[in-house]
Write a structure and sequence with these properties.
Layout (H helix, E strand, L loop, with lengths): L11 E5 L3 H12 L2 E10 L1 H7 L5 E8 L9 E7 L18 E4 L3 H10 L3 E2 L4 E4 L5 E8 L5 E8 L3
Parallel strand pairs: 1-4, 5-9
Antiparallel strand pairs: 2-3, 3-4, 6-8, 7-8, 8-9
């Protein structure tokens, strides 16, 4: 294994929510993400300087992503005291696009997303990858419109 520059390793990904509690509840119920205490409640000059957001305050949590054990990466879900509206999510928009979860059954997971306030974005499709495996996948959105990819992999035939 190659040593990453500066000892880099993945830590977390962040999503800014209009209602961090509702979004955290969604990721816990639908994907089994687990709360990593404590809840965060930040403000003050250090946060303002670090974020370059005047009078910044934020609240939220880290959610441990499933499948990587007690020290695995987290999804950080925060709500700022004053959020700035974002554009419409689109799979081809420049910037971070989506978070992906490997699931046993894409269709069943898609239904669970819908039952918990999410929505369909695209159709379920299956394709063969360059390494001979097949992947069944689709895009859905969480209750706040953030894109989520659901995928299920099969072994090479």
């Amino acid at each position: 294994m190659t040593q990453a520059p500066h000892g880099a390793r993945f830590g977390h990904v962040n999503v800014i929510a209009t209602d961090w509690r509702r979004l955290a509840d969604f990721y816990e119920r639908v994907f089994g993400c687990q709360l990593v205490p404590p809840e965060r409640d930040y403000g003050g000059s250090d946060l303002e300087r670090g974020t370059a957001v005047p009078r910044a305050t934020l609240r939220g949590v880290h959610m441990r992503l499933p499948g990587h054990g007690d020290t695995g990466p987290t999804l950080e879900i925060y709500t700022y005291g004053e959020n700035v509206a974002g554009g419409e999510p689109a799979a081809n928009r420049i910037g971070w696009g989506h978070i992906a979860f490997v699931v046993d059954d894409v269709s069943a997971a898609r239904e669970t997303v819908r039952e918990n306030g999410g929505a369909d974005v695209g159709e379920i499709v299956t394709l063969q990858t360059a390494d001979g495996r097949r992947v069944t996948w689709c895009y859905v959105s969480d209750p706040e419109g953030n894109l989520v990819e659901l995928q299920s992999w099969s072994n090479p035939s």
